[in-house]
Amino acid sequence: MSAFKSDFLNILQERGFIHQCSDFAGLDALAAKGEATAYVGYDCTAPSLHIGNYLTMMMLYWLQQSGNKPITLMGGGTTMVGDPSGKDESRAIRSVAEIEANKASIRGVFDKVLRYGSGPNDAVMLDNAEWLTKLNWIETLRDIGRHFSVNRMLTMDSVRLRLEREQEMSFIEFNYMVCQAYDFVELSRRVGCRLQMGGSDQWGNIVNGVDLGRRMGTPQLFALTTPLLTTASGAKMGKTAQGAVWLNADAFSPYDFWQYWRNVEDADVGRFLKLFTILPMSEIAKLAALRDAEINEAKKVLATEATALLHGRDEAEKAADTARTTFEQGSIAESLPTVDIKHDELERGIGVLVAFSERARLVASNGEARRQIKGGGLRVNDVAVADEKMILTPDHLTPEGVIKLSMGKKRHVLLRPA
After folding, report:
1. In angstroms, what is the C-alpha Rg of the chain?
2. Over its length of 418 residues, how does the chain's per-residue pLDDT go in tens digits?
3. Among residues 83, 72, 81, which one has the least CA distance to residue 41?
4. Which of 2, 57, 166, 243 is 20 to 30 A from 331, alpha carbon to alpha carbon?
C-alpha cells in the first residue's frame, strides 16, 4: 500500500530521495492535485554543476513526471553573496562577469533532464538577480530583516559550526540565509511556488524561507530535502583523482562520466540505479540482486543509463563501446578522451608528471602523480611508469599516432600531436 496519495512523494520515497519534509500531509495533498510548483536554487560558483546538483535535478525530473511544475532558479544574486554552508572559510567574491559566464555555461544542462515551455507543468528558469539586486537596503531591513531572529540565525549549522571552530564569518555570508529565504517568498508571489527542495545541508535555509513566507502572508510553503551523497563505505560521493564529477561534457567527458558509474562500489549499485536512472523499479530490483562477477553487468547498465539521461543515448552507447574495446578487446579505442598536444612540444619532450597532471588531467597534481607512480598506478602505452623523471617523446607514439596514458585499469587519455 502506498504511503502517500501523490505519485510524486511515492516515487521519491521508493527511490530513496527523501530526508526531511516540513509537512508531509500538506505537501502530499498539494502534489496529488498537481499544484506542487517547486524550485531548486543553483548558485553559479563554477562553469559547471556537479553530481551533487544532479541529485536535486532528478527530484525536479520526478516532480515534472508526476504532473507538477519545476522551477530552476539560477543564483545570479546569491552567488554574489556566497553560501557559507559546509565551508570552513569565506568563499571568494566573484565578479559579475564571472558569475554571468558561469551562469551561461550552466544553463544548458537542465534541458537534458527537464522539459521547458509554456505548458502548465513545463519547467521555467528564473534568476534571483532579477529581484535581489534591486532591493533597497533600508526597506529590506525594515520589511524583511525584522522577521529574522539573530539568536536563531546563530544556531544554524552554517553559522554555528564556523563560530565553534573560531573561524571568521563575514557579514555578507551571514546574510546569505536571508537572501535564500526571500527567494522563496518572491517565487511564491511571482509564480505560485510552494515547495523548495535541496540537499540536507540546506534544511535550515529552506525552513527559514517557509517561516518568512508565513510571516509575510504567503500561502503555506513547504521544505523537502534529500540526503547528502555518500558511498556505502561512508566516503563523500562525487570526487575522483581529477577532482569533482562535473555535469558539463567539456569539464568531464561522457566517457569519464560513464566510467565513474561503472566503478562504483558493489553495495551502491542498487541505490544509485534508483537515484540516477529512470529505469522501472522492477528492473532495478533484478539488477540490484546480482552478486559477485554478475554485479559488473548491473554497473554497466547503471553507467549507460545515467550517462544517457545526461548526455544522450548516443554518447552513452559510444562510451560503453569504448570501454568494451579498451578493456575487453585490449585495443586502443578512437573514442577514448583525447588531448591534442603540439608537435614541437613533444619533440622537446614532455615530463611524465606534467603529462598526467596538466595535459591529461588524470591526476590533480604532480604530487599525486608521484604517489601513483610509487604505487604502480600510472602507465604509458600499457607499461607501468617506473621513473618520475621519464620524458615523453615522439618515440612513444603508437602505430595509431597517439600516446596512451592510463591511471589504474579504467582511466585512459590519449595524447595526440596536432
Report:
1. 24
2. 468 999 999 999 999 999 999 999 999 999 999 999 999 999 999 999 999 999 999 999 999 999 999 999 999 999 999 887 766 667 778 999 999 999 999 999 999 999 999 999 999 999 999 999 999 999 999 999 999 988 888 888 878 888 888 788 888 888 999 999 999 999 999 999 999 999 999 999 999 999 999 999 999 999 999 998 888 877 777 766 557 899 999 999 999 899 899 989 999 999 999 999 999 999 999 999 999 989 999 999 999 999 999 999 999 999 998 888 776 555 565 667 888 998 889 989 999 999 999 998 888 899 999 999 998 899 898 888 989 999 999 888 887 788 989 888 778 888 988 8
3. 72
4. 243
Hey, what's the torsion of the CAs at 295, 301, 303, 309, to 10 degrees?
-150
State the cell numbers at 161: 559550526
Q: Which amino acid is at 133?
A: T
Query: Measured between alpha carbons, how far apart are the two ends of the chain, in Å?
Result: 62
Can you give the pTM of this predicted structure? 0.82
Strand-pairing partners, residue 42, are 74
β-strand partners of 340: 416
Fold of the CATH domain 338-417: 3.10.290
- Count the neighbouring beta carbons within 10 Å of the beta carbon of residue 334: 11
Structural domain boundaries in the chain: 7-230, 254-335, 338-417
What CATH number does the domain located at 254-335 have?
A: 1.10.240.10
224 beta partners: 21, 197
For residue 381, the tally of other CB atoms under 10 A from its CB is 14
C-alpha cell at 20: 526531511
3-state SS class at 249: coil
Q: Are 358 and 369 in contact (CB under 8 A)?
A: no
CATH number of the domain located at residue range(s) 7-230 in this protein: 3.40.50.620
Report the C-alpha gap between 265 and 273 in whole angstroms: 12
Report the alpha-carbon distance of residue 395 to residue 378 in Å, rounded: 18
Give dist(CA 263, CA 122) in Å, integer: 35
Cell of 111: 534541458
Q: Do domains 7-230 and 254-335 have the same CATH topology?
A: no
